[in-house]
Amino acid sequence: MSTKTFSVTIRVWRQSAAGRPGRFVDYPVAGVSPDMSFLEMLDVVNDGLTLKGEEPIAFAHDCREGICGTCSLTIDGKPHGPHEGVATCQTYMRSYKEGDLIVVEPFRARAFPVQKDLVTDRSAFDKIQQAGGFITARTGSAPDANSVPIAKGVADLAMDAAQCIGCGACVAACKNSSAMLFVAAKVSHLGLLPQGQPERDRRVLSMVRTMDSLGFGGCTNQYECSAACPKLISHDFIARLNRDYAKAVFRTAFEPVAAGGGGEG
Amino acid sequence: MDLVPNLFGSTIGRKLIMAVTGLLLILFVIGHLVGNLQVFEDPDKINGYAHFLQSLGPTLWAVRIALLVVVGLHIWAATVLALESRHARGDEPYAVRRWLRATFASRYMRWTGYVVLAFIVYHLAQFTLGYAQPDSFKTNLAHYTMRSDYHVLGITVVRAGTEVLDVRTMVIRGFSNPLVSVFYIIAVGLLSLHLLHGAESLFQTLGLKDDRWAAGLRLVVTLGCAAYFLGNLSIPGSVLAGILR
């Protein structure tokens, strides 16, 4: 089988280290196969740069099958490239044609500082997760299957939210660099399930407080996040997060506190 | 008691303040428009209505102060959120910036907001304080004598024969100036655009929206904003067209 190859030019953000000035550099790429993934095309470019003794383009990647959330890249102004519901690693060069100029930028947000070239530090998401993205479960032997009944619709909705791979495309797409879709997905996936109830109020208050303290912006309900999400997580979860937050604020404010103990939140 | 810090000190809390104050202001502007549409009826209606509102005394002031607080909170929350969002974006902008699905109205909320604020200031200066067009201000016009009773909810609030301020003439003379009328029409147009995003957005912020009725909500909000604009257009429009005199 022979496939016709073609040439494109990529305009890539090069930055030697965090806090250093960066600039765009154009690289002509010849011999692009339509079957290459976008990251494989970058691998080929890097091979060439390495052979020439130049510094290869740093970009984050891991599983290359759209489930780990490591790959990022804002391609022609859209996080994860041109397609809907597809991560950068699952974007193929067949989406481009001879002579295309492809602009490749890192995810931009103050909370996601550029480490090098196209690699950003997204550990702010880990900090939000650590603030409440967990449940308290009994350890030991595995519980009996289906010992906690969960309605099918609820389980499905929780799994929709749980699809979040924490890539940060929502932040990158938002003009406010808001992390609301990420936080909404985490809060909803645990808050919908019975196992997530004990910490429900404390979780949402704590995760939102951490989100704010890390310098993410607010939500202006433009839904760019869900349009850029490689897992197409719905912005309806943001409405749920808002509702959960409002409930938690009022519930904790008027809840009696046990003597010698702290209240929720 | 974390209620105050959780509401005023967090992004979502401030958004909730935006939504609740926005809802109150929407209810106010709808009521305001419906009241003012009485200008198309007998002069007794709009003049009696204005006299009734003026006669409320302390209640009127309570409502005025409450409205100012609500507007102040709305602007405060918007300003803080906008500054935070600008900071969150970081220093290096995208070289390629494109919108994926944000609605037209949602992209210009800040700008439509500025114009609406300028409009409110002018509107108060013109019809409430009398600074903008002193010649045609209600207190400088001859009094109007009510020819019939004015009722609110079936209760007579202004009796026939009462001398009241001639608000109707003030409105018509004010809008006879094409510059003023055109500014009004542009401002209410931008206010309608502001509400097109705001009225839909508040349901999302209050957590009352989901996919099942998002399309219905958008339709209702769009029709509501169009009706609101046409209602507001009708008063200066009719004066300019010579229908209302």
Q: In words, what does this structure look like?
A:
- The complex is a heterodimer of chains A (265) and B (245).
- With 265 residues, chain A is an alpha+beta fold.
- Chain A has two domains: 6-116, Beta-grasp domain (Ubiquitin-like (UB roll)); 122-253, Fumarate Reductase Iron-sulfur Protein, Chain B, domain 2, CATH 1.10.1060.10.
- Chain A contains eight helices and seven strands, in the order ββαβββββααααααα.
- Chain A has helices at residues 38-51, 123-130, 152-162, 169-173, 180-191, 200-213, 224-228, 236-253; strands at residues 6-15, 22-32, 74-75, 78-79, 101-105, 114-116, 119-120.
- In chain A, strands 2-1-5-3-4 form a five-stranded mixed β-sheet. Chain A has a two-stranded antiparallel sheet with strand order 6-7.
- In chain A, helix 5 runs antiparallel to helix 6 (200-213) and helix 5 crosses helix 8 (236-253).
- Chain A is elongated, with a radius of gyration of 21 Å.
- In chain B, 31% of the residues are buried.
- Chain B has one domain: Fumarate reductase/succinate dehydrogenase, transmembrane subunit (3 helical TM bundles of succinate and fumarate reductases).
- Chain B starts with a helix and ends with a helix.
- Chain B is elongated.
- In chain B, 69% of the residues lie in helices and 4% in strands.
- The model of chain B has no long low-confidence stretch (mean pLDDT 94).
- Chain B has 245 residues and is mainly alpha-helical.
- Chain B has a two-stranded antiparallel ribbon with strand order 1-4. A two-stranded antiparallel sheet of chain B has the order 2-3.
- Chain B is built from nine helices and four strands; from the N terminus they run ααααααββββααα.
- In chain B, a hairpin with a 2-residue loop joins strand 2 and strand 3 (155-158).
- Chains A and B meet through helix 6, helix 7 and helix 8 of A and helix 1, helix 2, helix 4 and helix 8 of B.
